Amino acid sequence: MKTMRLWFGCVTGLAITMVFGWSYGFFAALLPIIIMTNADHWHWDGYYQLVVGVIWTTVEVSFINGFFQSSPLLLTVVVGLFFLEKCIAMSHKNSYLFGFVGLLVGSIALNFASYSSFDLEDFSVTLWCSAVVTLPICALAYYFFPEPEPEPQSATGIDETNNAQRYDHIGMIRQTALGWIIAMLAFFIFQIGDLNDSLSAQASIIIVLAPMTLIGSLAAAKIRIIGTLLGCLAGLIIQVGLYTWSDNGILFIMAYAIAAGIFCSWLALGTIKSSIAFSAMSALTVPLSTSLVPDQKDAVFAIFYRFSSIVVAVVLTSMAIWIIHHFLVRVIKSPNEHFNHG
Fold first, then answer.
1. What's the 3-state SS for 17-72?
2. I want to staple 201 with a disulfide (CB 3.0 to 4.6 A). Which of 235, 264, 306, 313 is the partner?
């Protein structure tokens, strides 16, 4: 039943975006997966964190972009405080989803808002609509495909393996510092370089950072690359298979539903395959929903570019996380570590 719920959620979300023509409609297909992947029953807390995180973050970004974009120094200070807020939220289990959504959406919006081609208002409104429509999609999914045997789940429905938090304050400080430094480095790189076509690479940096630990991030990096490869291959198969029929909405959604069904079956397993499948779903959904324009433009180049940019971003992010982690371990030590060193 879990496979069916996930499949229903992503396919319905994509179908809604096709009907309304949302520019960033892939969020409507991916947000239901985030809510339902690790929750066999509906949890309001997870949905609240998602919606509040999306709305609050886009409002913050609009304020920052409107008042501080003209002053690089003030912009850097305010963005630093913004990222610090999200990283602190991620270091606590009960607010992890709020912090993660805020850091992911905020980093993308802040970086791309500096490009004239990026419409921040359109991005924010589409994201709000996607978050709002996630509620009826998930509600229908749980109604049509209920779990026969209830199993104890996290109160927020968030994956505990990705949320494993250290209970000592020193560990939490290191995690927060690691997340903040990586987020700021990504911000500087995207401000300096002309990377307005690298939204997926930007998102990959935050996804790799999400575990907030060295071991977890390195594992997430491998998973991200493998999942992206599988998702891109599935997207290419759909693109080549449909060929001139890509403008047929029914055939397109059917092809997407078949590929999504395979990945959703992996998502339901709750193992490493689940993480691989989520990366695959994003690699499958984003190019087909943003770059494919029937009778005008195919998504082949976008798929290849997505994979290459994500691989580069993931490798560089992993190296930066490794270096910063070891630096923080040397600089921020617990009393026991000081005692043992002495």
1. HHHHCCCCCHHHHHHHHHHHCCCCCCCHHHHHHHHHHHHHHHHHHHHHHHHHCCCH
2. 313
Instruction: Return all residues near 108 (Cβ < 8 A) that are at least 6 apart.
Output: 199, 202, 203
- State the residue for tokens 């959620």: 9
> CA distances (Å), 178 to each of 43, 118, 209, 336, in order?
30, 29, 9, 21
Higher pLDDT, 46 or 28: 28
**C-alpha triplet 154, 222, 304: angle, nearest 5°:** 115
Residue recorded with tokens 């297909």: 29
CB 235 within 8 A of CB 260: no
Residues 6+ apart with CB under 8 A from 55: 128, 131
CA–CA–CA angle 257, 34, 310 (5° rounding)? 80
Map residue 293 onto helix, strand or coil: strand
DSSP 161: T
For the chain, the straight-line distance linking the first and the last C-alpha, in angstroms and rounded, comes to 57
Whether the predicted pLDDT of 258 surpasses 90: yes
Residue 10 host element (H or E): helix 2-20
Task: Say how far apart CA 43 and CA 64 lie, in whole Å.
Answer: 32
Q: Is the dihedral of CA 8, 41, 209, 86 positive or negative?
A: positive
pTM for the whole structure: 0.81
The tokens for 198 are 């690298």
Task: Determine the Cα–Cα distance for residues 208 and 220; give it in Å rounded to an integer.
Answer: 5
Surface-to-core class of residue 62, CB atoms within 10 Å of its CB (0-12 exposed, 13-18 middle, 19+ buried):
middle
Q: What is the pLDDT of residue 149?
A: 60
